[in-house]
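TEACHING EXERCISE
Course module: macromolecular assemblies
Task: Read the component lines below, then compare them to the predicted structure of the full complex.
Student: A.B.
Group: 4
Components provided:
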Amino acid sequence: MRTQVGIVGAGPAGLTLGRLLELQGIETVIFEARSREYCEHRIRAGVLEQRVADLLREAGVGARMDAEGIPHGGIHLQFAGERHHLDFEELIGRGIMIYGQTEVVKDLTAARLESGLPIHFETPVESVDPETGVIRYAGGELECDVIAGCDGFHGVCRGAVPARMFEREYPFGWLGILAQVAPSMDELVYAHHERGFALLSLRSPQLSRYYVQVAHDEDVAHWPDERVWDELRARTALDGWELHDGPVLEKGVTGMRSYVGEPMQHGRLYLAGDAAHIVPPTGAKGLNLAVNDVRILAEAIVDGGLEHYSGQCLRRVWRAEHFSWWMTTMLHRLPGGDPFDEQLQLSQLRYLTTSETAARSLAGNYTGIETV
Ligand SMILES: Cc1cc2nc3c(=O)[nH]c(=O)nc-3n(C[C@H](O)[C@H](O)[C@H](O)COP(=O)(O)OP(=O)(O)OC[C@H]3O[C@@H](n4cnc5c(N)ncnc54)[C@H](O)[C@@H]3O)c2cc1C
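Instructor-supplied answer key:
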């Protein structure tokens, strides 16, 4: 069996690449280890940069996002008992789109199936050969001109690229809940608090997505729903404002990591998305970077210039790495509780809410820098 581009993984990176190449008449085959059901219900990211929302529209998969997604014009920063709004639209003239990764995956999967193109669920790839372009999976082999390694951080492709690794582990994680209750706030709230960081986010007008900072190896069994709500209330409390609770549909702990493997390519194999880099979710960049990688990869496959793929991606990757690290270290309670660090965090937060220049820099990075 042969194809032009073999894609390993049907997450946002693999599915978007399949769609972009389909529109250019390039043949692709997608392999996915998990079931369609599993992929479409795995709760993860939910903030799309405007440029990513635009790309999905241009690729013909933006209709439901435009109907059901929620455009936000900014975020709130909360610290020292005050909540401040950063108005991105006013600062830099663009905002973000709230639309769950689950929904992006559903839209892209539906479009691929409607086009009748090959996508093999529950077919884990066992190995890839960057020299010959062969993908080996349970029960067969596929020869490809190009292999796109879109199989995330725990996939098989990452190990097939001899890369220099840059890593940072954080000594904390996020306990996240998905709750069936209308969000209590109009836009995302990032709260710095002495008990630890909290984030109030959402997935839809009926679904709230809330997080509290916990230890990186926290056992979720220690967090009954009441404890989560109490902690969220303590960390986001504000006079005259109330956090409404509701049934918790999902609960889990995510560790925090920064990781970049350089280069992102070897032979016929090109890594994209979490297979090549990880950011802590504080900057809402993971999904956006994955889509940016495959935009560059699709262009290079169609127009040539694959040799420059890794270098082109890494400019944006490192910008996002820095932004995500900076947001993370500014907003979280740092273990050890050094009072000097604490004052630096508060000073930085105050600067963001009093200096238009500082606020504009955050807004530009958060909504997606245009030129890197
Ligand atoms: C628990 C969690 C919460 C997150 N929350 C946020 C958030 O709030 N905000 C944010 O911006 N980002 C978040 N992220 C990051 C964001 O979801 C990722 O950056 C994004 O999913 C990257 O897309 P991807 O397509 O590169 O990888 P993935 O979405 O990981 O997709 C990779 C796919 O490859 C498949 N696969 C793996 N191995 C194989 C194999 N051997 N053969 C075939 N298929 C294989 C996997 O099943 C998966 O479907 C979160 C990530 C996690 C893990």
